Amino acid sequence: MQQSSAGNTRAQPAGGEDGRLARRLGTGDAVVIGLGSMIGAGVFAAFGPAARAAGTGLLGGLLIAAVIAYCNAVASAQLAAAYPVSGGTYVYGRERLGHWWGFTAGWGFVVGKTASCAAMALTFASYAVPGPWWAQRIVAVAGVLALAALNYRGVTKTVLLTRVLVATSLTALAVVVIGIAAGGHASTAHLDGRTTGGAYGVLQSAGLLFFAFAGYARIATMGEEVRDPRRVIPRAIPIALFLAVAVYLVVGVAALLAAGPHRLATASAPLTAAVEAAGSPALAPVVRIGGAMAALGALLALIAGIGRTGLAMARERDLPSWLAAVHPRYKVPHHAEIALAVVVSVLVATVDLRGVIGFSSFGVLVYYAIANASALTQPASDRRWPRWLNGVGLVGCVVLVATLPWPSVLAGVVMFALGLAGRGLILRRRRAA
Q1: Cβ neighbours, 10 Å, residue 166
Q2: pLDDT at 217
Q3: Do residues 53 and 64 lie in contact, with contact meaning Cβ atoms separated by under 8 Å?
Q4: Which residues of 174-183 are buried (b: 16+ CB within 10 A; e: fewer)?
């Protein structure tokens, strides 16, 4: 540990200079990584479950999720500027609240986002290969291995491909919105005010749509690779979030006008259903390409973010120390990324995880609740935004966790119980040794 001039403890990577990642990312790079995570996860994956929960009320849920995400974003940005190392809220929780809180955040992030990696890989394959399930599984595994290999070659390669994927996804979404507007079948009659489940349904849709906004966490978890992190991170996180919210609102309104909530809720590919309902079926291939590219962008950023959190946890022996290795040439956590690629490939090949949005939201909301609680404890010298925003973010995360579908809540509780019990057992054995 190292004491800063402001009197705050700053986490430092273990292993000396050779064990540190290289600072290569500027503001634009960080924004692109955040957008790459959010665009794929949200537009192409979350609207269907949100429509099932709330009908047209999903727009209200989207706004609630955006407000809570903003509170979480400023907390993450403020903390990342003070603790510019890999690991995100795992590090912040350890530094501000204690080791158990940090572990809880890191465990939720790694387990929940590993499942999300499998979901994004399968989403990519389902858009790219409309063939038999076994062909989709092969393509999904190939996508995971290819992106892991790219991440292995360095963060600048990751950013370059993410730029291409984000540009392709946004172009496809623009074509979708224009096609819906020009198709002639979109109607305000589809926005008839029918809200499924009342206020509870709207809150549940907000919790599900929060899955879409979790991408900015990748910027914070990669804080050790950002140039001038005290300036870049607080700028990049809100910019990425605001751009994503704008895209979601435009696409969400267009999709509801075209297809209505019921058709979106029952469609496996909601945006494809929207352009077909709008009278522009010729655009379906564009949607497929956009969906595949967006899912790849989200998967690429997820691999990078989980690898960095795994690195931070391994440095503190909360995960096997083998995962703490940093490649001497490429300056990436190559052991952590190799292990992640193997685990995700096994999951993709054996289990259908496209329904894990609620499970992932549970883990991420707990992660951000701890981030807000950590930011509440920061001194005035480290504060960039009002403290009350952290309180709103903390309460909002707890409320959204409680309103998620009960199978997601049950699975999340079991997942955290196993992780915490496992850590307790390991610590007990270390003390006895």
Answers
A1: 25
A2: 62
A3: no
A4: ebbbebbeeb
**Distances 10 to 91, 136, 200, 274 between C-alpha atoms, Å:** 10, 45, 41, 49
Q: Which residue has the tokens 């960080």?
A: 30
Residue 259, strand partner residues: none
- pLDDT exceeds 50 at position 15: no
372: left (phi over 0), alpha (psi -120 to 50) or beta: alpha
Give the three-class secondary structure for 198: helix
Question: In 10 A of CB 38, how many CB atoms?
Answer: 31
Residue 384's CB is within 10 A of a number of other CB atoms, namely 13
Instruction: Note the pLDDT tens digit of each residue in 105-154.
Output: 999 989 888 888 888 888 888 878 877 888 989 999 999 999 888 877 76
Position 100 confidence tier, pLDDT thresholds 50, 70, 90: very high
How many residues are present in the chain? Answer: 433
Contact indicator for 86, 312 with CB cutoff of 8 Å: yes
Identify the DSSP state of 25: B
3-class DSSP state of 10: strand
Least confident of 49-58, 208-217, 298-307, 364-373: 208-217
- In angstroms, rounded to a whole number, what is the distance separating the alpha carbons of residues 82 and 79? 5
pLDDT band at 192 (very low <50, low <70, confident <90, very high): low
Closest by Cα among 344, 303, 287, 305 to 122: 344
Compute the half-sphere exposure of residue 374: CA atoms within 13 Å on the CB side of its CA: 34
Residues facing residue 198 across a β-bridge: none
**Domain regions of the chain by residue span:** 23-432
Superfamily of domain 23-432: Amino acid/polyamine transporter I (1.20.1740.10)
The C-alpha torsion from 241 through 247 and 248 to 250, rounded to 10°, is 140
Contact assessment for residue 361 and residue 208, using Cβ atoms and an 8 Å cutoff:
yes
CA distance 395 to 404: 15
What proportions of the chain, in percent to the nearest 5, are helix, strand and coil?
A: 80, 0, 20
Q: Is the pLDDT of residue 418 over 90?
A: yes
Percent of the chain with pLDDT over 70: 89
